[in-house]
User: Fold Serine/threonine-protein kinase RIO3 from Manacus vitellinus.
Amino acid sequence: QCPWGAPNTTSISCSLADVMSEQLAKELQLEEENAAFPEVVAVAEGPFITGENIDTSSDLMLAQMLQMEFDREYDAQLRREEKKINGDSKVSISFENYRKVHPYDSDSSEDEVDWQDTRHDPYRADKPTTTPRRGFIGKGKDITTKHDEVVCGRKNTARMENFAPEFQVGDGIGMDLKLSNQVFNALKQHAYSEERRSARLHEKKEHSTAEKAVDPKTRLLLYKMVNAGMLETITGCISTGKESVVFHAYGGKSATEDKVIPPECAIKVFKTTLNEFKNRDKYIKDDYRFKDRFSKLNPRKIIRMWAEKEMHNLTRMQNAGIPCPQVVILKKHVLVMSFIGKDQIPAPKLKDVTLSSEDMKKAYYQTLNMMQQLYRECNLVHADLSEYNMLWHDGKVWLIDVSQSVEPTHPHGLEFLFRDCRNVAQFFQKGGVAEALNERELFNAVSGLNITADNEVDFQAEIEALEKMNEDHVQNHGKKLSMFSSDGDPPIYDE
Ligand code: ADP
Ligand code: MN
Assistant:
């Protein structure tokens, strides 16, 4: 028995046909909407509909669906034309840039997204926490329906998080803000068109924004890391360099049990503008580890190799126990590592910190030891070592920025080492460390080679001769020397 009594059966004075057609139309519409936008319709359907929700949302969605349909057809036509023009020709032209539905919408291009976890596609709104099918929770006077204005408003606010990352929603998400369906739908519509506009402009934008921030593809990558819960929040930019932008982030939860994500992370984004990297070609082209792959790759992939190189080099250093950032994950040209510093404040570079003479001496011996370890245990030369790439944290020196590091037998490896030695020697000598070796002594101490020249010009000539010997060896034997031969183990310097 119904607790509210029997319903009033007042007869409706209109024809059966009218009722039928309207109901049918509504049913069909709801069905369609359900298929296309299940998460929003879940709010608008059902027995608790209030007058103001339905009209705006359904009109809007119909319009969006039509637009989407139109765009798809347009693209299909474009593809047909592309095919017709290209035929069997070896050289083909692409209409890619004229397409309306971009990967942002359809997620179809394999090059755009390699993030495995498709459940966390940021452009598909997560299902809102479900209100039970019957449409209400609670008992008696505490009953809450899914159309309760407050609940609904909060849900709408939370849903803003699903908008594209470049869409500024302010800090409403953090506040107890209640958005009416009408406002939410208007926002959603706007976010949607903004997203598409940015996707359409993406070629242009990628080049114009690379200077100040990151391009949309990188944002997508970062956004997905946050969405997957691997990163908690990305708080801001630590450094903008010529070749990279570094961000700070709070770590999240790891997908696998065995891996722990550090509480604070640094995200190094290698810039995808190519010109900056041109002059660094030599570091990677001649690195035998990457040699075979180099010729086959397009410039975009080469930039990813920088990130890959940094990852491998950091791992080697980590294994040798050298203080350096710990690799968390590599995604294309984005490298996530542990943050050296605390509470969002990065550790100062050695060039920016004033050390007591005692600490300075300590830093020197530690640097010397690290250079030796790097050379012998990691088989690496930093190749950009200076007070700019050494951080002072926890009373010791940390090495960073190793994307350009090479193995000693790299055709220019010893020259790079000599340059590193010059930077280090000069810094500590100027810093008042009386014990600091000069650049030539340091070079021998690190490499274990015994170059006796007592002036810089001769010393460098000998270095180059050694490098040439190595190259000749490669030419004649088809493989590199495993190591430069040295006369026994060099002395280990210590405090
Ligand atoms: P670049 O090639 O731009 O010099 P770096 O790797 O040196 O790139 O990073 C630039 C700056 O970002 C560094 O000087 C340092 O201040 C900061 N940084 C980089 N990685 C980290 C990290 N893991 N922890 C803290 N700060 C970092
Ligand atoms: Mn640097």
